[in-house]
UniProtKB/TrEMBL annotation, chains A, B:
Segments passing through the bilayer: 493-516
Range of residues in the leader sequence: 1-29
GO MF, any single term: glucuronosyltransferase activity
Protein's cellular compartments: Endoplasmic reticulum membrane; Membrane
Top-level enzyme category: transferase
GN (gene name): LOC114426232
Organism: Parambassis ranga (Indian glassy fish)
Protein name, per record: UDP-glucuronosyltransferase
Keyword set includes Coiled coil: no
Length: 530, 530
């Protein structure tokens, strides 16, 4: 491109256009009900919840009495409901999950391990949901409030069920659902020839054997879908309509706010009621606390490494931690590590462990060289947003698949937590820090990610308000929702046309045979008479 | 929604976010080559061309020496090239087309008539394109300029061919291509069970017979595709690569700017590299000239009617015009009519005919009650933007299908130009003006249409600049482009698995038979020995 910087003019014009456009459609404070999913899912939804409150909407968040991360706040109202489990029970389920990740080897069995863990985690949440649905006083209060929209993560069924009972449109906020139930419920085509199945290890470009694997895994996925959602189907069938499945219920959603974009996922068909808000969690940056700023600034030209394993895993067995400390001792970079375990006596001085760390603000620091992460989408997007290459240790859930996406794009390396050694760790650290290609590629990815017409948080707010203004987004809902599988694939039409064709061909043949016989008979009779 | 107007705050915040986001990615004046399609297609593309120029880009529009509507302007540079036809020849082709529309009856044959007309029109344009491609001086100048992006309408093949020759990414600006070649080239799934085929008269909700019709018409469409694009395929094959089809070439486009949205089209699957800019032509409004303002204001409570048949048809046979004058005489509304034909001596005083009229500004007037239009997408979107119900007379091209979409939504009525009478016209006018449902429905449609996160012109500019900044939009391009039909549908995988299955079943059966025989033999031998 040539001379003449005019971006500020464009910005101003665009801003005025936006302002003018908004002033055409006054928006007043709406009533928003929020049914979040506990754990890291809540962390990015909270950003939208706070923004909606800040903008004047009356937001009520349903908070279970016992939870991992969901809490009350001054930024939004809450409605606390009882659940049939204690904090200890919840923690113990999660601790079992945490322990497993440092011991079990990854592999094809990962898929089944993940499914089992998922079912354990969701079963208890389903029980919590039932408690809420049977809680007459809370349900009456919710019904009387006149909510206009439900913001929920359909990873658990309670949000969609409540939206249906309260007759309000639901906006979904999610990364995706196991076995792609989100795509199935949204009627989004997902051609198996270039859309890789989760955990298949494929990319969008597949060889013939990879396509065979993808095809077969999609069958396996269909089976898993049935196993995984059996509790949800049962709940929906009991509380909404006999025979209705969880997928049927989820398909009623007005809008899908998907926490990814095509710097993370491979391009594929999408639906009109999908909006992509990947990176919504890394919009806001704050300066680092003075001592932390001093520590990372002191790293000089070598820079520093940010190391976290997500909001749910802040600890690891001592032996495992030693591997990391031993490797960190041998590099010139400083390390900021979210770690609540015991420190060894000889802990290296270039490592600062913290109970909690401002991950996004650290990654935004110009001296950040590398991000060691478990590969949750929040962390990945903070890596992409701030253009920091990653060393990834997938632990559970979708992380294995997330990590694969980043490794394939050349912006990360993957190691497995169960067999990492000081040597492999050192080699990986040095490779990513010194091979410039990782940084170049994530710079490119980051530039593309940031370059979008509307920032993710604004886009999410827009669609929430749109659904309130128009009581849904019915103009974006495909008619495929009213078709069954046979109708969708036009198999009845195909069958009908085949029957017609067979009938026509059959009749024509019969006519021909009849005529031929007639002719033959005539010929024989003529010859006989002759 | 409740009290508390805070839209201005939101607007300001959003504006600042936008401004901040843009300032992160400085944009400098880029070099844009534009290959437009003559006729009404050019009218909306011109809006984007002017905006790009205004924003500091160096825009060069390729203008054929002889054209219907494309002309030079102070707002952009032009490169004029010779074509092998005169203005008279071009006009005569178009006149034949114009004459036909007032005589021929509509119906199923419409489809074939449309195809023939289309081929007549495009053949001469293909010849013009060849002249350009063989024009050494012009081609050298284009090659030397270092353009960064090609803005073109792939309705004709010259733009995509030039983009390929000049090795620059192409951004397509279009309403759609005949026989849905746009969707096919973009690898966009189009399930025939709820995506109606053009001219099928179906909507997205179909009965079984309608699905049969849709299914069969999609076969017919495939055949038409071959007939319609034979000249284009030949041109591409000769100038780019032997055996390459027009569809192959078009599929290389970086971005699709589609001049519709889901207030006009029915919701369906889309692709990540599609942006919807329907209504781009009705963003800017100007006050009416004083005399016209006086005329329409004088219409009192009855309001006025805007009557145009598009940029290409400003006249009609006198007998036909009489029908309209006679009907207009009997209504209290005033009429502003774009008409260049002879006025009858007794022309009613409530009708003002004009050679050209500011259509969008008139429709934006609060007294506008009805829009009589041929159903081009430009006019339709001006009707939607300004929430004016429509009486539609489809003439040719996609208009029949466009009109159907509006009639089904209850915001318009349709009459056919060849058999309209004063009585039917009067009845339709009175129905639309006095039955409040038309106005209520178009008000709703208009509200939804306007309610979008980025206005169409800003969105089009954004993607043009994005493609320049990133030399394409490869992260949005699906891998399906590299698959053939068999691979895309995984038919080879399916075949392979069937062979495996047959082999396994066959071998198992053989084993069983072998074992059974062995057992039987043993049994017989035992019995014999006994």
């Amino acid at each position: 491109m040539r001379s003449g910087v005019w971006f500020s003019t464009l910005g101003l014009v665009a801003s005025l256009a936006w302002l003018c456009c908004l002033s055409l459609r006054p928006v007043e404070g709406g009533k928003v009900l929020v049914m979040p999913v506990d754990g890291s899912h809540w962390l990015s939804m909270k950003i939208l919840v706070k923004e909606l409150t800040r903008l004047g909407h009356e937001v009520v968040v349903l908070v279970p009495e016992t939870s991992l991360l969901i809490q009350g706040s001054d930024s939004y109202k809450t409605e606390i409901y009882k659940v049939p489990f204690t904090k200890d029970e919840l923690d113990s389920i999660f601790n079992r999950l945490r322990e497993g990740v440092f011991k079990q080897p990854p592999g094809i069995e990962d898929l089944f391990v993940n499914v089992r863990r998922l079912i354990n985690f969701t079963s208890i949440q389903v029980e919590g949901c039932e408690y809420l649905l049977n809680n007459e006083p809370v349900m009456s209060r919710l019904k009387s409030k006149g909510f206009e929209v439900m913001l929920t993560d359909p990873f658990l069924p309670c949000g969609p069920i409540l939206a249906h009972i309260l007759s309000i449109p639901a906006v979904y906020f999610l990364r995706g659902l196991p076995c792609e139930l989100d795509l199935k419920a949204a009627q989004c085509p997902s051609p198996r020839s270039y859309v890789p199945v989760f955990f298949s290890g494929n990319t969008d470009i597949m060889t013939f054997p990879q396509r065979v694997k993808n095809f077969m895994m999609s069958f396996l996925e269909s089976y898993l879908c049935k196993v995984m959602y059996v509790h949800f189907d049962d709940l929906v069938s009991r509380y909404i309509e006999r025979g209705m499945t969880f997928k049927d219920l989820v398909s009623q959603g007005a809008m899908w706010l998907l926490r990814y974009d095509f710097t993370f996922d491979w391009p594929k068909p999408i639906m009109p009621n999908m909006a992509f808000i990947g990176g919504i969690n890394c919009a806001k940056k704050a300066p680092l606390p003075a001592d932390l700023e001093e520590f990372v600034n002191g790293s000089g030209d070598d820079g520093f490494i940010v190391f976290t394993l997500g909001s749910m895993v802040s600890n690891m067995p001592e032996e495992k931690a030693k591997t990391f400390f031993d490797a960190f001792r041998q590099i010139p970079q400083r390390v900021v590590w979210r770690y609540t375990g015991t420190l060894p006596d000889d802990a290296p001085k270039n490592v600062r462990v913290m109970k909690w760390l401002p991950q996004n603000d650290l990654l935004a620091h110009p001296k950040a060289r590398l991000f060691i992460t478990h590969g949750g989408t929040h962390g990945i997007y903070e890596g992409i947003c701030n253009a920091v290459p990653m060393l990834m240790f997938p632990l559970f859930g979708d992380q294995g698949d997330n990590v694969h996406r980043m490794v394939v794009r050349g912006v990360a390396e993957k190691l497995s937590m169960h067999d990492v050694s000081t040597e492999t760790l050192l080699a990986a650290l040095n490779k990513i820090i010194h091979d410039k290609s990782y940084k170049e590629k994530i710079d490119e990815l980051s530039a593309v990610h940031h370059d979008r017409p509307v920032q993710p948080l604004d886009l999410a707010v827009f669609w929430m308000e749109f659904v309130m203004r128009h009581k849904g987004a019915s103009h974006l809902r495909v008619a495929a929702h009213d078709l069954n599988w046979i109708q969708y694939h036009n198999l009845d039409v195909f069958g009908f046309l085949v029957i017609i064709l067979i009938t026509v061909v059959g009749l024509t043949l019969k006519c021909c045979i009849f005529c031929t016989r007639k002719c033959c008979k005539k010929g024989t009779a003529k010859r006989k008479s002759e």
